[in-house]
Amino acid sequence: MKLIGSYTSPYVRKVRIALIEKGLEAEFINDPPWELSTHVPDFNPLGKVPALVTDAGDVLFDSNILLEYLELQGGAVPLFPADKRDALVVRQLATLADGVCDAGVAIVLEGRRPADKQVPDWIARQQGKIERGLTALERQATGREFLFGNSLTAADVATGCMLLWLDFRLPTFDWRSKHPALVALTTRLSARDSFSQTIPKA
Ligand SMILES: N[C@@H](CCC(=O)N[C@@H](CS)C(=O)NCC(=O)O)C(=O)O
Q1: What residue stretches are annotated with the GST N-terminal domain (predicted)?
Q2: For ligand 1, is residue 44 a contact (CB within 6 Å)?
Q3: How far is the CA of 143 from the centre of ligand 1 (A)?
Q4: Which end of the chain is more exposed for a tag (fewer CB within 10 A), N or C?
């Protein structure tokens, strides 16, 4: 397998973590999608990372599709519960974490536009998504070691990647003071090899 991505993308990090957790191998091809020389659109018409080329030569993209694909490959650690209803809960939580991340990315990109072209109401709308999303995830994390069940799932992977990406790209955004259960979750996740080996590099 070949994983096309960048070292800073939280969505790519999800897949790198899943590979490590499952003990699966993929060659990593660093191809930041914002660079003019990028080949990412050759793999994903949407021009986004992550994308994956399977050993059979098929090309897949979107972190959630890639996690589902890796789940089909087996490996030591399942990231979705066997029960379909439980798996739906995990997918919903992971989608919520990704949505918070999408809103954070939107704020970062808006911040790169000239100051007089930035739209405060639109930034506030994204902040609302982040705050409501974190509140819901905090509620879910409270009193639990993992967001769902008794072992790591795709929900923890997505939430950890999102929160640690907020620290990386929006360091002045203080999510920690209001969300102690998420702080504790990220502390536990950061101690795993899969997280410590995939810390974003600018
Ligand atoms: N829903 C997608 C989001 C992927 C995404 O937005 N990736 C960013 C990197 S952090 C990207 O490639 N952006 C380039 C672009 O939007 O053109 C996933 O989960 O894979």
Answers
A1: 1-78
A2: no
A3: 32
A4: C
Domains of the chain: 2-72 (3.40.30.10), 84-192 (1.20.1050.10)
Distances (CA, A) of 76 to 21, 47, 65, 153, 157: 7, 31, 19, 13, 16
Whole-angstrom distance, CA of residue 123 vs CA of residue 163: 18
The reply to whether ligand 1 has any atom less than 6 angstroms from the CB of 62 is yes
Is ligand 1 within 6 A of the CB of residue 94?
Answer: no
Whether 60 contacts 54, CB under 8 Å: yes
CB burial of 71-90 (b: ≥16 within 10 Å; e: otherwise) equals: beeebeebbbbeeeeebebb
Ligand 1 pocket, residue 75 CB under 6 Å = no
Residue 139 Cα to ligand 1 midpoint, Å, equals 27
Q: pLDDT by residue (tens digit) across 21-72?
A: 999 999 999 999 999 999 999 999 999 999 999 999 999 999 999 999 999 9
Q: Is the peptide bond before 81 cis (omega within 30 degrees of 0)?
A: no
Distance separating alpha carbons of residues 19 and 77, to the nearest angstrom: 10
